[in-house]
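pasting for the record
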Amino acid sequence: MPVRLRPAPAEQVEAALGRRLAGVPEAGDERLLVKHLLALLTMTHPGASVEVRVPPYAVVQCLAGARHTRGTPPAVVETDADTWIAVATGAEPWADAVAAGRVVASGERSDLSAVLPLPGPGRLPRAT
C-alpha cells in the first residue's frame, strides 16, 4: 500500500517559504514544500483520475472521476519541484507554466488551473 502524504506543520511551511523568498533555502525545504503541497492537493481534491508527478519527491493521485489501477493513468501531470511550488502557491499561474513547457500535462483532466493555487498557508505573491 502506498504511503499517504501528510501536510507539514504550518510553522515549518511558513519558515521554508520565507527562506525560499529570501533566497536562502535550507537543505530539505524543497522536499518539505513539494510533499506538503501535494498532500494539500490530495486532501482538497481527493480521487484517482489524475496522477501528479514531481520527481524525485513524490507522485500522487487526485481528482474524483474514473479510477485507474494499472499502467499509465488517463491523465498525467509532471513538473519539477520549483514549478510545482510556484503554481501550487500562486506565485505563477498554471497557464504560464504550461505555456513555458515547465509543466507537461496530458489526458482528459490534466488541466489543474481550476484547483490551483491551493488554499491555506503558503500562498506566495505572483511574479510580475
